[in-house]
Amino acid sequence: MYVERETTGLETTSQERREGAQPDSRILGRVVQCDGARAIISAFADDETGAVTANWTVGRMISINLSEARTVGLVFSIDKPDRQWGDSARNAIEVCVELIGEVRDIDGKPVFDRGITLYPHIGAIAHRIRARDLEAVYDLGGRQSVEIGNLSQDEKIAACISIGDTLNRHFAVVGTTGVGKSTAVSLLLRKAIAARPELRILIMDPHNEFATTFPDQAVRIDTSSLDLPFWLFRLEEFAEVLYRGREQVVEEVELLRDLIPLAKQQFRGATQGVGLRRSTDNGITADTPVPYRMHDLLRMIDERMGQLDSKNERPHYRGLRMRIDAALSDPRYRFMFASRLVDDTIHQAIGAIFRVPHEGRPITCLEMAGMPAEVVNSVCSVLARLAFDLALWSGGRLELLVLCEEAHRYMPADSRLGFAPTRHALSRIAKEGRKYGCYLGVVTQRPGELDPTILSQCSTVFAMRLANERDQDIIRSAIADSSASALSFLSSMGQREAIAFGEGVATTMRMKFERMEAGFIPGSRVKSGQLHEGAEADSEIDLVQLVSRLRNLPRPAENMERASEHAPQAGDADHRRSFAPAQHDPDAFGRRLFDYKADTYRR
Ligand SMILES: Nc1ncnc2c1ncn2[C@@H]1O[C@H](COP(=O)(O)OP(=O)(O)O)[C@@H](O)[C@H]1O
Ligand SMILES: [Mg+2]
Q1: Contacts by 511-515, CB closer than 8 A, 24 or more apart
Q2: Residue that terminates a domain, selected from 137, 156, 185
């Protein structure tokens, strides 16, 4: 193998001990060219007996021994310039390496430093790298490290990341569908929770696949277990729901902008005995998250509609009234309008979503596969906003990670796509969240379609296989240090394999994530067709249930369940027996969001 394993601690390298001209099994070649970042090594593809040694392969690390330090290089291309294979004489090859840094022995321990102080001279000897040196290259130097897999080059060496830096400064996992992004993320989250038990995680889960991965640590939230009062919505989020993601009628939204603050005042006046004050002089706007009664809003609309001077506006009042009525009677929006939410139950509602107290379950999976697109838009926006504000106002006591699967849908590169408030809320986390303890994890298979500013805020990137040239270019431009050539492997990496770079790792690292047990792979139950825990194998398809799901109406049994349920119930692992994958929901198709990958479940 390529890596030199040693049993003893510090010893002189073989080439220090012997004459340079003597044959040495660790000598691989000699430097024949060097510039500031790269070197070319002249070597042979075969040994004296004519046997092909296969000593050189792309992606391996080597070291070039200089007197004080060992320069570490990464092989990124190998060439036989004459393109001829000769059987009679040895075959000379050229090996191009990128210089990554230096290892020095300090107090008997190898210590790695990015950056080169001593450039290899012509004729310097290139060696296999010692295992200890390789470990030193990836050593995190005292930062709290967690093991997430192994190095690709040497499976015996653990791949470690600094969990603190990975979280605090946001991270991204990118790669083609099926390479293991979701599995890698669940592994990272598992390690993050283990290292930081007080961390809360909100997973925006478009395929309802994560809850099974964390059976004991996560709660599920879907439209039937979500409690998110309408008054927490900002005007634009509320309008998104009312207009179902379609073109909004500006006049009607303006009426809402005037009336909602009044309804809020009225509710305050009624509950606090404060005299009714007109207009927004006490700072309450349509966006302020204080409660109001829908009933008050509707009454005001009706009153104004009846007034003589509102003749021209009457159609707008009428239109608005109809829209609100439609939303109120739509069972899919019950999570917003359920009557108990009118009271100031915000503490409970928010505590249940953001796990305060977490009761051993610090992860919330927002299961969105069954939700209509406009609900997804608004709910994500509200939750991302709340996440930031909670972290901000907790003064650092609450640490929150918002994980976005399929992040290109919320934060697309094309600013005309996606839902603007969600994008704002998430980019606020990306830009300022780290100061307040609100972190972002981004997962996408199309980095090219993700807002580039978001990716640039992610200080640690796990790049898995990427076939698309454009996507590769995006990642290449994101990597700042000298190891950009590592990314030439992006198109050919295997499953579970990733190139990790950025703040969370010591040096750009090609690694393989740990193998996860089948039961903990995200979506494993969905993919294997076991949608419901209770379902017997080969049971008949329940058409009644299917149709009621199409209508988005809960079944009578579920109704009763709903009536008795309250916030913390979402915590029970088996509470929500059923969760509908995207393909059962006609609304999830053909809309701006979540039209994708439904077929993955059937694989
Ligand atoms: N770390 C891992 N351990 C075991 N199996 C894995 C691992 N990563 C990926 N797989 C396999 O690859 C499949 C796809 O992984 P997944 O995480 O769903 O990919 P992606 O999210 O990129 O589409 C999984 O169903 C699983 O069989
Ligand atoms: Mg996935």
Answers
A1: 511/148, 511/149, 511/150, 511/151, 511/152, 511/159, 512/149, 512/150, 512/151, 512/152, 512/155, 512/159, 513/148, 513/149, 513/180, 513/183, 513/184, 513/187, 514/147, 514/148, 514/149, 514/150, 514/187
A2: 137
Q: Which ligand is nearest to the CA of 186?
A: 1
User: Per the domain annotation, does 4 fall within a domain?
Assistant: no
Residue 195 phi/psi, 5-degree rounding, is -80, -30
Q: How far is the CA of 284 from the centre of ligand 1 (A)?
A: 48
Atom number, ligand 1, closest to the C-alpha of residue 187: 1
CA 181 / ligand 2 centre spacing (Å): 6
Q: Measuring from each residue's beta carbon to the nearest atom of ligand 1, which residues come in under 6 Å?
A: 175, 177-183, 495-496, 513, 515-516, 521-523
Q: Which structure tokens are listed for 92?
A: 């000379």
Distance CA 130, CA 149 (A): 20
- Residues 122-133 have pLDDT tens digits of 999 998 888 899
pTM of the model: 0.80
In a domain, residue 509? The reply is no
34 and 95, same domain (yes or no) = yes
Mean pLDDT of the chain: 80
CB 169 within 8 A of CB 535: no
Ligand 2 centroid to residue 178 C-alpha, Å? 7
- The first and second tokens of residue 260, run together, are 């909602």
- Whole-number Å distance, alpha carbon 588 to ligand 2 midpoint, is 18
| Ligand 1 atom closest to the CA of 179, numbered from 1 | 22
Look at residue 581 and tell me whether its pLDDT is greater than 70: no
Domain residue limits at 240: 235-331
Pair 216, 316 in one domain:
no
Distances (CA, A) of 269 to 263, 275, 297, 500: 10, 6, 14, 56
In the chain, the number of structural domains is 3
Note whether residue 470 is domain-resident.
no
